[in-house]
Prior knowledge:
The protein is mostly helical. It is built from three helices and no strands.
Amino acid sequence: MFPVEIMCRVSVFTPAQMFPTPPLSLCCMSGIIWLNWKVDGGDGSGSFSVAI
Length: 52
């Protein structure tokens, strides 16, 4: 779970020149938000607010 989250974070926060596919980044970002929501117990704290 964590390796996938790290890879998605890199693709989301890396300059668009290196990742010219916004749909992929958006998909990863939504996945990160869902994962962090599950990890934080759904209270929206911690890394959840950072991932948005």
